[in-house]
Design brief:
The complex is a heterodimer of chains A (374) and B (600).
Chain A: E1 3-9, H1 28-44, E2 51-59, H2 67-80, E3 82-92, H3 100-105, E4 110-116, H4 120-126, H5 132-145, E5 148-155, H6 162-172, E6 178-183, H7 191-198, H8 208-224, E7 228-231, E8 234-236, H9 243-249, E9 254-257, E10 262-265, E11 268-272, H10 276-284, E12 290-295, H11 298-309, E13 316-317, H12 318-325, H13 329-332, H14 334-339, E14 344-347, E15 350-353, H15 355-359, H16 361-369
Parallel strand pairs in A: 1-2, 1-9, 2-3, 3-4, 4-5, 5-6
Antiparallel strand pairs in A: 6-8, 7-8, 10-11, 11-12, 13-15, 14-15
Helix pairs in contact in A: 1-2, 1-10, 6-8
Chain B: H1 2-6, E1 8-15, H2 21-31, H3 42-53, E2 63-69, E3 72-78, H4 88-96, E4 100-106, H5 113-124, E5 128-134, H6 143-154, H7 172-182, E6 195-204, E7 208-217, E8 219-221, E9 225-228, E10 234-236, E11 239-243, E12 247-250, E13 252-254, E14 258-265, E15 276-279, E16 298-304, H8 310-323, E17 328-334, E18 338-345, H9 348-361, E19 366-368, E20 375-379, E21 384-387, E22 399-413, H10 418-427, E23 431-439, E24 442-450, H11 451-455, H12 458-465, E25 471-481, E26 484-491, E27 494-495, E28 501-504, H13 505-522, E29 530-536, E30 539-546, H14 562-574, E31 579-582, E32 585-588, H15 589-596
Parallel strand pairs in B: 1-3, 1-4, 4-5
Antiparallel strand pairs in B: 2-3, 6-7, 6-15, 7-14, 8-13, 9-10, 9-15, 11-12, 11-14, 16-18, 16-19, 17-18, 20-21, 20-22, 22-24, 22-25, 23-24, 26-27, 26-28, 26-29, 29-30, 31-32
The chains are: A alpha/beta (374), B alpha+beta (600).
Chain lengths: 374, 600
């Protein structure tokens, strides 16, 4: 079986206002120690030598890493595992994109660029440290080297208007074969959460109705540009869906390396504490830094299958469900399907959310999760 | 023999909340050499908090004191009264046990409206009242003004009223002097058959239910076989005693004295406040005047928010019942709310206090249904049924007549507010009976009104229209036929029995609209639109709609989010704690409370 591998690079030059991923501002020395620690973890991994077909280097801001360190890291991945990568992605921030051309030489074949918006006021509001022009320059350079580029776009953020969304999609779709479009969700603890609560953006941020409209608008505009929704927030030209991320939604296995990384192997979910010092110490000492979060029993597997499949545009594979769990989905969940029928569609033996259903995704999934599987 | 009674004084203290009743009582007891043991249990403090918040003065235990005045020993019995309007009957029986009352007034506040009810009750019971001006130690004290106010508003001579500081102990001896000088000694016949007035009861874990009594005629001692004249039940006296304030056994209680009887009475309901105790061997021919069987006036359903806590609720009600025999309850069930109890109370305030005590003292999350009254329904086949749960109203087709309980309402008010009050009563379907000027400052207005009108905001309206100066008393006065209908509420076209009401047709439209609106605000938006309808039979009289949710939070879900998100979504259906499933609609318990509580 082919697993994916995710490496977390928890370094940023500043914290964006809405972000709740683990990252710190740091020094070259710490970055070097950290990469060494990641390498140590991989070398000691139980999954040494297993088949890997997708690699994802995420963060934080992986593009802050000096190319040499990145090279060291990638070499270690190749030597610790049997990598036949169809996709090796690195996340890039427009502020630290000077080396992107060099990444190709290391085997990287996909860039995920954190554009977020092409409106400078919006960018400032988000705490991003680049301008629209800088982002576009990066995209220009990137497109000369990479065919497989993804951009992040945020929706319903402060100071953004409908025309921004249309404009951004128009421009970005000329460069990117894949766009991740997220409705703003601020977790407690982020600066933006507090500011929104305070009412700082009173009239400058979309309300619930508008946010829903923006999402629908984005779906429509992206579709017009050939980027079909394949997951709630992910859109791509045919063939350019993120193979690594699909593993998450298809319940496939992946290894998570680094402080704050998550793994899913052999039915168990693990995480590593988001603490760089601790991580470095543990891996130095040859200790396994993973903490087991849960061992999935049958019930949990079924619930995850439902929750994750419904995020995909194609939906839940009814035949596969029967094969894997010996449950006739349509009949076992008949009542729930009936209740939510206005939000669902069944096609080719797949049960999926329809357009309205995607907007009320959590409510629908919650209904299914409320039933205890047999 | 007669001399003994000459040296007894039975009195109570009337005071507005925080005017200093407890402090004064403490000082009096100190002067009389009584050691006050303040081992108040947490439970009592809680209920005291609630009572305090409601503006009800804390009830003290009865106390017997001995005081030496001018070389003579006197026995002073301090009896306290419950403080709220729903307990008027209990108050009147406690007053009936006394010959006099101290009226404590805060020298910085003067007379406040709520004091007046009990003052008038005391006057009506022919008690001698001694005004006491308290808190003279404060710089804002105006004792002379307050004395004048007492004379003007109540019509009591107050020139000689002692001015005291209960906190500092100043002049408290003057109070005792006046108690002895001004209050009459108790009357009664030592040699006649025993007649003792039960003015209160309490439950003791060891001795069982205890009667607080005032012996009018004769005497009682351990070993006597007594009979309760109203219920006919007999008991053997195991102990008689007095409160010092702790219960303290004595040999005999005689005419004019106040104390308690313990007779291994298991159920506090066997003790009826106002009843007369006499002996089996030497039975009295006539009971003491004034006994009334208390009837619950207001009903509501009380359900545990978590069905699993049904037993906890039942135990809690049993415990409250021990010291509050006027609370009645019986099991009930509802489609929407599950298993709970139908409870009966003496009035709204009683109901609210019980609800709060259940929540605070017993830590229960409750759902209560609308306060309602019981209706007398005559069916077409001649059968008469009493319906105290709207959901049990028989089908329209088999109803001949519906009658509702009527009360005689007595409103005491300063003359200035008469017009506003009469307007209010008319508005509440009242019928004017009489109006009397008790004196230049007090008018008594009498109306008959449907009880159901009183239980919805009447009291509050009365207070606000009269700036707090009016007071209300009411007594049950039979049933009267009325154009009454059952108002149902449908959510998503399914009837919710917990919300059904019986109302007068005139009121149906406004109530229906009002509750439909409240439901609309209280029900959280859900996946689909929810139509709300108020209906009488099949006729829809009000409509509201809860719009469908437009969108959830649409968050990302990568490897690290899966476990957390799964937990969140699993919890989402269980609800933001305490959602009640009503058909296909989820309603938070708080929503029920807000809809069904008495509205403003």
């Amino acid at each position: 079986m082919n697993r994916g591998i995710y490496i977390h690079i928890p370094f940023c030059s500043s914290k964006c206002h809405y972000c709740d991923f683990y990252s710190i501002v740091t020094t070259k020395e710490i970055m070097a120690s950290y990469i060494n620690a990641c390498i140590k973890e991989m070398q000691a991994s139980t999954f040494q030598g297993s088949l890997i077909d997708t690699v994802y280097i995420g963060g934080g801001t992986p593009s802050l890493l000096p190319v040499k360190l990145l090279e060291k890291l990638i070499d270690a991945i190749f030597s610790s595992f049997a990598v036949k990568a169809q996709e090796i992605t690195i996340e890039v921030n427009p502020c630290s994109a000077q080396n992107i051309a060099a990444y190709a030489g290391l085997g990287i074949n996909r860039l995920s660029i954190g554009v977020q918006s092409l409106n400078n006021q919006v960018l400032a509001g988000l705490g991003r440290r680049h301008t629209a022009k800088e982002a576009l320059d990066v995209l220009e350079r990137a497109s000369t080297v990479y065919k497989n580029i993804s951009c992040d776009l945020m929706l319903a953020v402060p100071y953004q208007q409908e025309k921004d969304i249309i404009n951004d999609i128009n421009i970005l779709s000329d460069y990117a074969a894949h766009i991740s479009a997220y409705l703003l969700k601020c977790e407690q603890g982020t600066s933006m959460y507090a500011w929104i609560k305070e009412g700082r953006y009173a009239n400058a941020i979309a309300d619930e109705e508008q946010a829903a409209d923006y999402y629908l608008l984005a779906v429509e505009k992206l579709a017009q540009k050939g980027l079909a929704r394949y997951e709630t927030s992910n859109f791509a030209l045919p063939g350019f869906e993120s193979k690594h991320n699909l593993k998450y939604w298809q319940g496939k296995e992946y290894l998570g390396i680094g402080a704050g990384a998550h793994s899913y192997t052999q039915g168990k979910r693990y995480c590593i504490e988001p603490d760089i010092c601790r991580y470095i110490k543990q891996t130095e000492a040859g200790k396994d830094p993973r903490i087991m979060l849960e061992a999935l029993d049958r019930q949990a597997l079924i619930k995850e299958r439902i929750m994750l499949s419904l995020r995909l545009a194609q939906g839940l594979d009814i035949a596969a469900f029967a094969k894997d769990f010996d449950i006739d989905f349509l009949s076992f969940y008949k009542k729930t399907i009936e209740k939510c029928k206005r939000l669902l569609q069944i096609k080719d033996n797949f049960l999926a959310l329809n357009q309205q259903g995607f907007l009320l995704q959590n409510a629908v999934i919650a209904e299914f999760l409320d039933i205890s599987p047999a | 023999m007669e001399d003994r009674k000459k040296y007894i004084r039975n009195f109570c203290i009337i005071a507005h909340i925080d005017h200093g009743k407890s402090t004064l009582a403490d000082r009096i007891m100190e002067l009389a050499g009584v050691v006050q043991e303040r081992d108040i249990k947490e439970q009592m403090l809680d209920s005291m908090d609630i009572e305090r918040e409601r503006g009800i003065t804390i009830k003290l235990t009865p106390v017997r004191m001995t005081y030496n005045y001018q070389g003579q020993e006197y026995t002073l019995n301090l009896i306290d009264t419950p403080g709220h309007v729903d307990f008027t009957y209990e108050v009147s029986r406690s007053l009936a046990a006394c010959e006099g009352a101290l009226l404590v007034v805060d020298a910085t506040q003067g007379i406040e409206a709520q004091t007046l009810t009990n003052v008038y009750l005391a006057l009506d019971n022919n008690l001698e009242i001694i005004p006491v001006i308290n808190k003279i130690d404060l710089s804002a004290a105006e004792p002379d003004l307050v004395k004048q106010e007492i004379e003007d508003v109540i019509g009591l001579p107050a020139a000689d009223a002692p001015c005291v500081s209960a906190k500092a102990g100043t002049n408290v001896d003057q109070v005792l002097a006046q108690i002895i000088e001004k209050l009459p000694s108790p009357q009664g016949d030592d040699n006649a058959p025993l007649r003792a007035l039960i003015f209160d009861s309490l439950y003791d874990n060891y001795k069982g239910a205890i009667c607080n009594i005032r012996v009018v005629d004769g005497s009682v001692q351990a070993g006597d076989e007594i009979i309760m004249m109203a219920t006919g039940k007999t008991f053997e006296v195991s102990e008689v005693g007095v409160f010092k304030p702790k219960m303290s056994a004595i040999g005999k209680l005689s005419s004019g004295e106040v104390g308690y009887i313990a007779a291994s009475i298991k159920n506090v309901k066997d003790i009826r406040v106002g009843d007369t105790v006499t002996t089996v061997k030497n039975k009295a021919t006539e009971p003491l005047v004034g006994y009334k069987k208390t009837l619950p006036m207001v009903f509501c359903g009380i359900f545990p928010a978590d069905g699993a806590k049904y037993n906890d609720l039942r135990e809690a009600l049993d415990k409250l019942n021990l010291n509050d025999s006027s609370l009645i309850f019986e099991p009930e069930s509802s489609l929407a709310l599950g298993f709970g109890f139908r409870c009966g109370f003496l009035g709204l305030l009683h109901m609210e206090i019980i609800q709060e005590r259940l929540e605070r003292e017993f830590d229960l999350d409750l759902i209560t249904t609308a306060p309602s009254v019981s209706y007398r329904v005559t069916k077409t086949d001649g059968k008469v049924v009493i319906v105290d749960n709207p959901a049990n109203l028989p089908e329209i087709g088999v109803i001949e007549t519906i009658e509702e309980p009527i009360v005689k309402a007595f409103i005491y008010t300063p003359p200035a507010y008469v017009g506003a009050i009469m307007e209010l009563c008319q508005d509440k379907r009242g019928t004017f009976i009489d109006m009397v000027y008790l004196d230049t400052t007090r008018v008594k207005i009498e109306y008959t009104m449907p009880l159901s009108e009183i239980i919805y905001d009447f009291f509050d309206a009365l207070k606000s229209k009269t700036r707090g100066y009016a007071s209300l008393d009411y007594e049950f006065s039979g049933y009267q036929a009325g154009d009454l209908v059952k108002l149902d509420f449908l959510l998503n076209a399914e009837a919710c029995d917990a919300l059904s009401l019986i109302v007068h047709r005139e009121r149906a439209y406004s109530r229906g609209r009002q509750i439909a609106e409240k439901l609309k605000d209280a029900i959280p938006r859900q996946m689909f639109e929810i139509p709300i309808q108020a209906a009488i039979g099949s006729k829809v009289i009000a409509r509201e709609t809860v719009k469908a949710l437009r969108k959830d939070v649409l968050a990302k879900c990568y490897g690290g989010d899966i476990t957390r998100k799964k937990k969140l979504l699993e919890k989402q259906k269980e609800g933001k704690k305490r959602m009640r499933q009503v058909g296909s609609v989820q309603i938070p318990s708080e929503a029920f409370m807000s809809i069904l509580k008495i509205d403003n």
